[in-house]
Amino acid sequence: MKKRILAGVLSAAMAVSMSFTMAYAGETEAVSGTEAAANADGLATEGKFVVGFDAEYPPYGYMDDNGDYTGFDLELAQAVCDLEGWELVKTPIDWDSKDMELNSGNIDCIWNGFTMNGREDSYTFSVPYVNNSQVIVTADDSGINSLADLAGKTVGVQADSAALALLSKDGDQADLAETFGDLQQFADYNTAFTELMAGSLDAVAIDIGVAQYQINGRDGYKILDEYLNAEQYAVGFKKGNTALCDTVNKDLKTLLDNGTFDKIAKKYEGQGVDPTMLCLRESFGEASTEAETEAQTEA
To answer: Which of 26, 88, 137, 167 sits 20 to 30 Å CA-CA off 220?
Structure first.
């Protein structure tokens, strides 16, 4: 009798176990299916476009007076989301942690004045949309009028930035950096510029658009005529994520064709996004606008 009872209990237990296993398997299969659908276009999370950006990098990404994150790049990202029906998730990141954030899947892309040149082997990039230059900003009365005048001076730069790469060992401007009295790194350019205004730095090596934004409306500062280099901005995706990159490229072409790209750029004209810097049209094999052509001819 006891044996029959024990056998019954064991049979019931096995039945419950099998039911649980089948339910779990079904749930796992459903989750895997969801993930497959979410990753079909390269997004880490279905319907959400998570953009990593430096929140202190105006005019491309920053916090406005209302406490909202905005900027030229973030508005472009929002326009892409509007086309795709995605939710834009603006995610501020530490710039020197951007690779970890991207490779771990915490963000879908880096879209924030991100230099593609020299990084092509580390990321999958969209088409370039802005021509950028690395420049030197200094005070009008600093006595610094050329790159040669930086000898013995203290120069600031953002950590893990394109400007730092230029001035570091094996960089294209490594010889120039050797003449500096000191090269100091900062977490963001707002801090570096604050130090420049305080007199702790003699100059800052910085992207031209950010430089123009910083000195706009501020008397007493200038950009040297000699540039450190010329480069281009693009959207950076995890290496191999061509699906999401292709989608964004397609949408950028749509935004160019329907006038949205130029409309957003016009909003930031005079704040560091000059019409002569825009290169999205050329990236798609189209002729420059009249204003861009005229400015390029004058240059």
So the answer is: 167
Q: What is the pLDDT along the chain (299 residues), one digit of tens a residue?
A: 433 443 443 444 444 344 433 443 443 333 333 343 345 579 999 999 999 999 999 999 999 999 999 999 999 999 999 999 999 999 999 999 999 999 999 999 999 999 999 999 999 999 999 999 999 999 999 999 999 999 999 999 999 999 999 999 999 999 999 999 999 999 999 999 999 999 999 999 999 999 999 998 789 999 999 999 999 999 999 999 999 999 999 999 999 999 999 999 999 999 999 999 999 999 999 876 554 444 444 44
This prediction's pTM:
0.80
Q: Helices 189-198 & 208-215, crossing angle to 10 degrees?
A: 50
Over the Cα atoms of the chain, what is R_g?
25
d(CA 169, CA 46): 42
Who contacts 42 (Cβ-Cβ below 8 Å, separation ≥6)?
108, 237, 241, 242, 243, 244, 245, 247
Closest CA to 205 of 187, 223, 225, 231: 223
CA neighbours within 13 Å on the CB side: how many for 87? 7
Rounded CA gap, 13 and 251, in Å? 55
Cα dihedral: 163, 212, 198, 135 (round 10)? 30
